[in-house]
Amino acid sequence: MSKTIVVPLDGSAFAEAALPMALGLAERLPARVHLVTVEEEMLPVPDVLLEDAARHWAEHYVSDVMGRIRGQTGVEVENTVRSGPISETIHGVARELDADFVVMSTHGRGPFTRVWLGSVADGVVRTSEVPVLLVRPDGQEPPDLGSDVALSHLLIPLDGSDVAESALEPALSVGRNWDARYTLLRLVRFPNEAVSAYLPDTTKMVEQIVREGTAAAEAYLAGTVAGLRESDLTVESRVAVVNSVGRGIIHHADELGVDMIVLASHGHGGFRRAVLGSVADKVVRGAAQPVLVVRAAQD
């Protein structure tokens, strides 16, 4: 059964940076791509001429993008042009379509709006029940829509919770289409709060906490890895001690050269319905790799 991928666009090359990833996923899953362009309501009193001009531009722009996509790939592509609050409208369209993924750029600039896609991406990832794949633009030129997408290595940070493990299935559903390998990452925070007036006591206390935390993390990942390998998946694990979990995830993603990071939207120290927590926030804002954010079935 064909899946649906929603791609928000704002008329900029920055926003279009998400298209190669969306098209690559669509070809492999397979899925149809649904483009969404939203005219932001800017004026307290409606201006019919401005609204008509904005809608005409949006329809012309989306038609042009659809033509370019059809000229490069055989992916089925549709579109929706709406007006209203941008994040809420994108979320609403994804829900109406029962979308499987929202794939969007982290930044953009529309000709009829302020620079909005950065804040919109933030808003969508906070509220969406649909997994959101964020792609960081690397230039101001329109992307090559026929470029190959390689997802051969995925990083999945886990914290030992069932909620964090909810990222596993979406990660596997994406990675299996590239016969990808997976690295499960468990980071142990260095116990900066373990302070004693007597330095030798502090050293021993810290060493014990780190040793116990590392051993527990290794045991947990060993069990998870073994279960996944039973499904003939290529899976490895990594445990490290860090001062900042968010920065630690970014560091290990770069060191391992992964193609994607997959995170659950809740977890120990994670984020809630309307509050993006420090760990996920750092990764989404700081990672060079695409980041797939999965909302756990919780609340």
Structure overview:
This protein is an alpha/beta fold. It is 42% helix and 21% strand. It contains ten helices and ten strands. It has a ten-stranded mixed β-sheet with strand order 3-2-1-4-5-10-9-6-7-8, sandwiched between helices. Helix 10 links the parallel strand 9 (260-264) and strand 10. Helix 4 (86-96) packs across helix 5 and helix 9 runs parallel beside helix 10.
Brief summary of the model shown:
With 299 residues, the chain is of the alpha/beta class. 42% of the residues lie in helices and 21% in strands.
End-to-end Cα distance, whole Å, is 29 Å
Structural class: alpha/beta
Percentage of residues in helical conformation = 40-55%
Q: Strand portion, in percent? A: 15-25%
Overall mean confidence score, pLDDT: 85
Write the element-wise H/E pattern from the N-terminal end onward: EHHEHEHEHEEHHEHEHEHE
Q: In angstroms, what is the radius of gyration? A: 21 Å
Low-confidence spans: 110-117, 267-276
In total, the number of strands is: 10
**Tally of alpha and pi helices:** 10
Provide the fold topology:
Elements (H helix, E strand, L loop, with lengths): L2 E7 L3 H4 L2 H10 L2 E9 L8 H25 L4 E7 L2 H11 L4 E5 L11 H11 L4 E4 L17 E5 L4 H4 L2 H8 L5 E9 L9 H31 L4 E9 L2 H12 L3 E5 L13 H9 L4 E4 L5
Parallel strand pairs: 1-2, 1-4, 2-3, 4-5, 6-7, 6-9, 7-8, 9-10
Antiparallel strand pairs: 5-10
Helix pairs in contact: 4-5, 9-10
